Request: fold
Amino acid sequence: MSLQKAEQFLQNKGFLDHVIRLEESTATVVEAAEALGVEPGRIAKTMSFLQGEQAVLILTEGTARVDNRKYKDTFHMKARMIPFEEVEATIGHAPGGVCPFGVHEGIAVYLDESLKAFDTVYPAAGDDHSAVKLTIAELEQVCDAKGWVDVCKAQ
Reply:
């Protein structure tokens, strides 16, 4: 169901032809990179946080790690990830397929500066056997991000 929601969202935005369905698992950054034949950094990892009761998604390059100090400086609160077992109910996609496409109403999406190291990235498309090939400009356009943040550790 998540894949269909993401695909419907992408179709409405004119990006359905960017979806890649794979036989191999794309549930982790390493698996997605291997399945797509790209370096792990090109996988746009979608991380799920709670800010009070508000769910927030932050897309980072695949190998990036959140820097708690930068996160707190940016959002004025501690980083609190959504518990694994609550991600699907909160976001609309299960872990391994979380993406900013076709999520529940009212979820804020941010893009981390780490993504700018690449011209093309591959976020998930709603399940653990899919991806979406997008340029950074296309990603900005399609995911209705609130903006760019810098919340990852320097690599």
